[in-house]
User: Which sequence fits this backbone?
């Protein structure tokens, strides 16, 4: 039996106590809605004593109401692990960006005309060019309203970020040209090791404190709840999910996931469009399911 199967069977024998779910591209459909089947499955997991945790790249203030209104979701990991919130919306753990590193980052990207977003205390502040015409900058039509619902629409994002450099949960670069994005990623990584850098979509480059990340937040939360990682299942689709998929006792990727997620996953379930999260939950409760 290979190591992935051994690892999965150990988790299967011990049972799952905590399930961490990414939102966009995993739990939600591509049209930014939650299917009745997935909702019912999440409610079933909660009713049977599993702690369901939201683990998203979104800031807390933009979490879908369809998710937060599910009774029994007590914890939200937001902004790629920069912040953790309880069921009352209270932030119980946070890592802000180092203001000196923010200044350094702004210096590196100064020559480039980029679309930027900043996240402060769970709220989104976006480049007004992006919110004025999201489609032009690669936004899917189903997320146009999401982009336009930003708390602030800023004319000069670089100045705004500099002004608020001591308050930032995270910063995001939106760039539709993959060659430009890779060039910037390499240049920034070569100049500082103080950021956790990841991506939730191919057009995004997201910067958090080096202590952030979904896996880091989950480790902390599980320690607070006295839950061993062997009893944790995670499910995601994007590069910002790969660390928690690798870390968990049972790491799961949806069929539409990127390569980095699938490489670390012990289990692949159907896509977000085909209710993959519901399939995962059914497998967790199936007494006859074998990996």
Assistant:
């Amino acid at each position: 039996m290979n190591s992935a199967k051994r690892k999965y069977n150990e988790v299967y024998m011990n049972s799952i106590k905590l399930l961490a779910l990414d939102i966009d591209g995993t739990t939600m459909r591509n049209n930014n809605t939650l299917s009745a089947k997935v909702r019912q499955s999440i409610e079933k997991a909660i009713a049977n004593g599993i702690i369901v945790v939201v683990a998203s790249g979104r800031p807390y203030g933009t979490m879908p109401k369809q998710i937060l209104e599910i009774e029994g979701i007590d914890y939200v990991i937001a902004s790629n692990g920069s912040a953790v919130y309880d069921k009352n919306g209270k932030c119980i753990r946070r890592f802000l960006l180092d203001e000196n590193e923010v200044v350094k980052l702004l210096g590196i990207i100064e020559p480039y005309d980029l679309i930027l977003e900043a996240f402060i205390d769970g709220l989104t502040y976006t480049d007004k060019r992006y919110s004025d015409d999201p489609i032009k900058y690669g936004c899917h039509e189903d997320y146009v309203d999401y982009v336009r619902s930003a708390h602030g629409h800023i004319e000069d994002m670089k100045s705004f970020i500099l002004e608020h450099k001591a308050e930032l949960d995270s910063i995001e670069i939106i760039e539709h040209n993959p060659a430009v994005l890779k060039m910037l990623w390499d240049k920034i990584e070569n100049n500082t090791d103080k950021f956790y850098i990841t991506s939730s979509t191919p057009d995004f480059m997201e910067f958090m404190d080096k202590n952030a990340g979904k896996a880091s937040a989950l480790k902390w939360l599980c320690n607070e709840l006295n839950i061993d990682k062997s009893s944790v299942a995670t499910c995601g689709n994007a590069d910002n999910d790969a660390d928690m998929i690798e870390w968990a006792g049972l790491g799961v990727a949806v069929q539409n996931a990127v390569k980095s997620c699938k490489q670390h996953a012990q289990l692949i379930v159907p896509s977000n469009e085909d209710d993959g999260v519901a399939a995962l939950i059914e497998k967790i409760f199936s007494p006859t399911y074998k990996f």
User: Anything to note?
Assistant: The longest helix spans residues 3-14. DSSP finds 13 helices and 14 strands in the chain. The chain has two domains: 3-94+213-285, 99-209. Residues 193 and 210 are 8 Å apart (CA to CA).
